[in-house]
Amino acid sequence: MSINHVCSNCDNSFTGNFCNHCGQKTVHRITMAHIGHDLVHAFTHTDKGFFHLMLQLFVKPGIVAREYIAEGKRKRYFSPFQYIIIIGAIGAFVAVNSHFIETTTQAIGGSAGYSAKQLAFTQKINTLQSRYYNFMILLQLPFYALATLIIFRKHRFNYAEHLTLQTFITAQTTIIAMLVMLTIFLLGKTGLYLAIIMSLLSTGFHVYAYSQFFKENKFKGILKGLFANILGMFFFLVFIVLVITIYGLTSKTFF
User: Fold this and answer.
1) Alpha-carbon span 221 to 200, nearest angstrom
2) In whole angstroms, what is the distance from residue 214 CA to residue 177 CA?
3) C-alpha torsion 225→228→230→231, nearest 10
4) Which of 8, 86, 172, 194 has its CA 20 to 30 A from that of 54?
C-alpha cells in the first residue's frame, strides 16, 4: 500500500520517496546518525561522490568534463563548483602551513637579484596569495576559460561551458600542487625545482584534459592544448602584474 506524503517544500501531495513536483526527498528528523550518513554519502557515493569524481578526473578528466558539460550526464557526478571550493579550502590550508609560495619566491628573488625592498614587497604579496590561495584558484578560472574559448572556438562551446571545463581541470591541478607542497614541506627544502616540476605536471594535465574534451588527440590538438594553457597563464599573469603594479605605484612601496 502506497503512503501518501505532503511535500514540506512545496505542499504537493505525492507517493514514494521523492516529490514529483519539486524533487525533494521525503524528510526525516535530523539526527547525528543522519548527519554522519549524509556526509559519508556525499564523499563516497559510487555514482556521484567527491572521491569518485577525484579518481575519475585523474584517469579521464576531459571525458568526465565532456559528459557533464556536453552530454548532460550531471546526475552521476559531484558538482564541479562544490568540488573546487572544497579542494581550494584544503589547498589554502596546505599553502599556508607549507610556506611553499614564500620559500619559492625567496629562492627566485635571491637568484634574480631583487633588492631588499622589492623582495620584502614580493614576500608580502605572496603571503597574501598563500592566505587566500583558494580565492586565487577561483580567480584564474575566467582567464583560462577565455584562452580555451579562443583556441578551441570551432567547437562552439560557450564561455560558461569553458568555465566549467576549467573548474574540473583547475581543481585537479590544485591537488597536484598540494602534493608538491607537501613533498617540499616534508623534505624541508626550497621549492624552486619542485615548483618547475609542478608547472610541468600542471601543463601536461591541461593538455591531456583538452585532448580528451575536444577530441583532438593528434599532434595538432596537443599543440593547441599547450598554446591554450600558455595563453591562459599569460592572461592571468598580465592581470596579476597589472594589479601589483597599480598597487605598487599608488602605495610607493615597490618602486
Assistant:
1) 18
2) 25
3) 170
4) 194
Residues, the chain, total? 255
pTM for the model stands at 0.77
Spatial distance between the Cα atoms of 94 and 36, rounded to a whole number of angstroms: 25
Cβ neighbourhood burial of 251 (10 Å; 0-12, 13-18, 19+): exposed
Q: Which residue shows C-alpha cell 575519475?
A: 56
End-to-end alpha carbon distance in the chain: 79
Q: How far is CA 160 from CA 52, 54, 57, 83, 136, in A?
A: 24, 22, 20, 17, 19
CA–CA distance, 150 with 157 (Å, rounded to integer):
10
Residue pair 182/98 in contact (Cβ under 8 Å)? The answer is yes
pLDDT, tens digit (0-9, with 9 covering 90-100), for 102-145: 666 665 555 445 556 655 666 666 666 667 788 889 999 999 99
